Amino acid sequence: MSERSGVWTYYEVLDINLANVLISFLQESNERMILENYCKGIDHDLNEELMNEVDSWVGCHEEEINRFIENIFLKHRDWFYNYSIV
Description:
Elements: H1 6-12, H2 16-28, H3 32-41, H4 48-60, H5 62-75, H6 77-82
Helix pairs in contact: 3-4
């Protein structure tokens, strides 16, 4: 049985419209490193080497990513409360 990271699974089912929302939040927050590494995985979920690279980067920057996510939730809470998948 093969093991796949959460990163790989995330990109495999990624909704590009929601990815574009996150990309705009990243650009707005001037989070260049997170943006660059986030974009690496888009449409590359079949590239095992790249998925491992992104997964490794995420593992090394978890605290920074979690702070960013918390700030995004707080700054854009109305969007999150009003967004619903129909």
